[in-house]
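step: validate -> pass
step: tokenize input -> pass
step: predict -> running
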Amino acid sequence: MASFLTWGLLVFLSFLPPLVYTIWIRNTERCHRQQWLSIFLCFLWGATIAVVAALILEIILQIPLESSVSLTEVTPFLAVVVIAPVVEEFTKPLALRLRSVKNNLSEMEDGLIYGAVAGLGFSATENLLYGYSFFSEGFVIFLVLMATRSVGGCLLHASATALTGYGFGKTVMKKSSFFGVLPYFLLAIFLHGFYNFLVSYELFGVLSGLILAFLFVIFAISMIRKKIRTLDGQNC
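step: predict -> pass
step: emit ->
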């Protein structure tokens, strides 16, 4: 029973914040809100296929780094600040290529919304995986770390993937080259990598780095929502 309750709490704390954020992002749009089925599929993609694909790609890309003596010292840095952002920001927005999602890309803000939702699905499963490891630290620390991820991790994934989603949505609606996604993809990688740098390396101190990271992603998600509202206002 204890094990069942423990897992129930873990799943609840892992998925509740991303789901709440999903509703929040989806409802930022006032006119022509996105269908719940498409929202669900984006979230599901992020929580399943994107996570599995990212794990496999990260392992593959780290193999040459770990086997190189000259790169041993910088491997952790490259894995956190370069490899993870590149891989995860590649797998998450592929949700927008799902037929039922792609067919609903009819307004410029749609890509921002679907990208953010795919990122939130990813963060939910990531919360679950990290949360499982947090249990060994004690219940209080577990709750603190889960609360931290519920803000920083969730808003990071939503903000970063929203950028690529926006670029993809523009290319679909304008029927332009997919190379048009590249600037947004690179910006998403930078946002993700910079956040990981702030929370992983004690350049400013642990607490200062965490506060800076939080302010960074809060600003980012605020800009994303502002953009959604602006674009939505043009279509009402």
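step: describe -> The first helix runs from residue 2 to 26.
step: cleanup -> pass
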